[in-house]
Specification:
95 residues, mainly alpha, 2 helices, 49% helix
Length: 95
């Protein structure tokens, strides 16, 4: 119990063919293969970026002309809109 025998795999393949059709299965397999290839390339790129960040020293800050001070940039935070407050005595559902 817990092992797949060849019969289990054959029945599973037959169910997939019946559910999705024989024409869509190759396209689906091709799409999954492309997605995995893209995912693998992106993960490799992330690892390469991490290695580059560890070996590359940070760049020196840009020199400002005399008499100017740097301006700190603050991030913009958007808060979701609050739901309307109910009015006492008014129905909340619309007809």
């Amino acid at each position: 119990m817990g092992e797949f025998s060849p019969w289990h795999l054959l029945i599973l393949a037959a169910v997939f063919v019946l559910l999705f059709g024989a024409k869509k299965l190759p396209d689906a397999a091709r799409s999954v293969g492309r997605s995995l290839r893209i995912f693998k390339a992106e993960v490799k790129g992330l690892h390469d970026d991490d290695k580059d960040a560890e070996t590359t020293p940070p760049a020196p800050p840009a020199q400002l002309p005399a008499g100017q001070t740097p301006v700190a940039q603050t991030p913009v935070v958007q808060t979701p809109a609050a739901p309307p407050t109910p009015v006492p005595g008014e129905r909340s559902d619309s007809l």
